[in-house]
Structure formats: C-alpha cells, structure tokens
Amino acid sequence: MAYVSGLRCRECGREYPAEPLNVCDFCFGPLEVVYDYEAIRRVASRERIQRGPLTMWRYEDLLPVDAERAINLHTGFTPLVKATNLGRLLGLNELYIKNDAVNPSYSFKDRVVSIAATKAREFGFDTLACASTGNLAGSVAAHAAKAGMKSFIFIPHDLEKGKVLGAAIYGATVVAVKGSYDDVNRLCSELADTYHWAFVNINLRPYYAEGSKTLGYEVVEQLGWRVPDHCIVPAASGSLFTKVWKGINEFVSLGLVQATGTTHMHATQAEGCSPIVTAYQAGWTHVRPVRPKTIAKSLAIGNPADGFYALKTIQATSGSAVSVPEEEVVEGIKLLAEYEGIFGETAGGVVVSALRRMAQQGAIGKDEVTVAFITGNGLKTQEAVESVVQPITVEPTVASFQAAVNGR
Ligand SMILES: *Cc1c(COP(=O)(O)O)cnc(C)c1O
Ligand SMILES: [Zn+2]
Fold first, then answer.
1. Could you tell me if 156 and 275 lie in one domain?
2. Closest ligand 1 atom, CA of 236?
3. Residues 189, 216 within the same domain
4. Span 147-157, pLDDT tens digits
5. Which CATH number characterizes residue 369's domain?
6. What share of the chain is helix, strand, coil (3-state, %, to 5)?
7. Which residue pairs from 354-359 have beta carbons closer than 8 angstroms and sit at least 24 positions apart in sequence?
8. What string of H, E and C letters represents the secondary structure of 282-320?
9. Most buried one in 22, 267, 278, 385, CB count within 10 A?
C-alpha cells in the first residue's frame, strides 16, 4: 500500500483515490493503479528482492497491497524450465517454459486473486465473487476459504468438470449461468451494482490485474536478470498479456535489469475465439466482439476487456498475435507433455502450437531467449485429451502383458 498513490483513468488521465473503483466517471475508461516510482526506486534492489520469500510476495514493493496482510497461499515463484527437448525439435536453443500450472489452485489466476482478495479484505468486503472462464473460479474460491470470506462464483454452464469441482470443493457457491462467458460477465456487472461484493475482476479489476505483473518479474529474475527476446502468452481478456509486459518494463525503468533490446510480446488464441488475433491481422485498433466456440474454454472471451491495450502492447513491442486451429490445441498439449514432462491445459496447448508455428515460420531466431507461458494445469481440462490417451488393460499374467505390448 505504501507506494500506491491512487488510481488513474487509462484514457483521460483523471485521478481517483485507491478505492474499489474500476471505471472513470467521465469517459468510462478503465482505471489503473498509480505508483510512486520515485519512492520505489529508492528502496528497490535485486538484493532486497532476493531476500524476500520464494513467492510472488518477494515483489511486494511493486504491488498494490502489503505482503504482511496478504491472503497468502504461497503463490508464484513457479519454475522456469529450460525446454531443451522441445527446443531441439523446434530449432530453438534458448527456449524456456514458465510453468504456472503448479500454483496453489493450478493456474496463474492465483497471482491476480492474491492481490484482489487481499485488497477486498482491506476494503472491508466479506464476500468475494467473480465471473470466470474456469480457472478464476477455483482461485477465488480457494482464497475466500483461506480468508474466511464467503464466495459466489459465476461460470458458463458448459465448463469442464475439473473446473467446476475445483471451485465448489472450497465451499463456494458456484452458479452455472446458461450463456457464454460474456453473458456471465454482463450479469456480474449488474449484480455488482446491487450486491456489496468484491467481484475480483470487475469492481476490483485495477488491483486484480496488477498481480499478473509478477509473471514478468519472475521471468526476468529467473533468467538471471535478463529480459527475454520473446514472450508467448495466451490471451482471453488480454489483461495477462499486457501485464507481463508491464512487469518487464517496470524492472527496466527501475534499473533492476538492463534491456538489451525489446521484448517482443506475442498473444495467442485458438481460432474458435480469436478476436484479438483477427483485429491484429486486419490492422484494426479496436477488437470486434465474436461468439466463442473453442476447446480452449479458459480463453473463451468474445469481447475482451483489454483487447485494445493488448493491441497497443503488440504494436509497442513489435510483437504479434497468432491463432491456432482448434485441432492443434491438443497437439500442443501432447507436445509439451511428451517432450518436457509438463501437462498444461488447453490454453497451454494454444501457446505451444503457436510457438511451433512461429518457429517453423522463422519468426524466432535460434538463439533468441524465448519464454512460453503455461498458465493452467492439464488435469483440469481432461475432456480435451481423453480420446487421445488410452491405457492398455491386461490380465495379471506375464503372457497377457506380453501379448498386449507386442508390436508396440
Ligand atoms: C484466464 C486465463 C488466461 C488469460 O487471462 P486474461 O488475463 O483474461 O487474458 C490465460 N490462461 C489461462 C489458463 C487462464 O485461465
Ligand atoms: Zn477517463
């Protein structure tokens, strides 16, 4: 809290106090947290960060809440794995996987919810809520449990079983809405006016979004205080994508790391819901909403709240936006699992397939440091891969086993 000076409209620049607000009263632009970077610069150092806990809270000085008051499930500082096998296959010598599938509720959403939930408690809310494409559900429910708060989780009715169970188990009230995520989100925006609840990604969105910066910080630190040349990030609302870049950028501007060149930011989506990619390819400055129909349900946002800023980030970093055909999503999941021993969810399949396409098209130099972000766990999207992985069943005899494996 110490280094937050307030909120500011990203469009007209009007300033607001650090309260549970998310849109500008004048122009309806989204609000963003403003920091006192001069004060941060005086305290921030690599040594101070390295003395911190092995969680996202080591970056406390750059976050809008005090670590001391955190609802702390020990999120973050997840492995950055050098992907030597996959790198060899794709002709990339410096390929890394940021494995955020191993967070407490098995997705990167724990980063954003850690901040939003802590902030919600600070503001005096007793109920956490969210509109979720799946992973946010589990994370909000888990943090509410830890904080002793109530939670209402709104999801589209056709989510994967693992995501529904993975929220309900924490004691949350899970509400399946007959509609798409965009319908769920609209409903929640209306409910937020009626109920005094902390909707983490609606009325607390400015704080929530800041949590994703920690992915950028971690990658820089784990690369040995180097900035990557390429980041390949899945995009739904586009918030994560813009905040990974913001995190890297803050480290550079605070002098914590030397930028040797620009980090190119690449947003990835599945073809069945790719409004950001479509806008990028068409050269539009704004995203046109689509009706999602994709296996990558965690990315199924047809009207991305941060689409405009994602496009600006692509432009600012000479990045790109890449979509992959639906059938390549499962290929990507299998590729990562079989080459690197990491089981990502469908969003991860999107990222790995997009990475493969980019490598094949020569969009990534063979010695360029490239980080692929795996943001959710494959055990939550088993439906996607069920049909492509079959165990063999045998009688408990050597003969039966040998007959079954014969020819494999
Ligand atoms: C929510 C989610 C994303 C994208 O988040 P946005 O910030 O809305 O773009 C990416 N991957 C997974 C697994 C997610 O659950
Ligand atoms: Zn404004």
1. no
2. 9
3. no
4. 999 999 999 99
5. 3.40.50.1100
6. 45, 15, 40
7. 354/232, 354/266, 354/268, 354/322, 354/323, 354/324, 355/90, 355/95, 355/232, 356/90, 356/332, 357/322, 357/324, 358/230, 358/232, 358/266, 358/320, 358/322, 359/90, 359/91, 359/92
8. HCCCCCCCCCCCCCCHHHCCCCCCCHHHHHHHHHHCCCE
9. 267
The preferred substitution site among 98, 103, 106, 108 for testing ligand 1, maximizing ligand atoms within 8 Å of CB, is 108
> What are 55-68's pLDDT values in tens digits?
999 999 999 999 99
Number of domains, the chain: 2
Out of 156, 181, 208, pick the residue that ends a domain.
208
> Are 229 and 289 members of one domain?
yes
Ligand nearest to the CA of 30: 2
Print the domain residue range for 89.
Answer: 80-105+212-387
If asked whether residues 180 and 231 sit together in one domain, one would say no
Can you tell me which atom of ligand 1 is nearest the CA of 301? 8
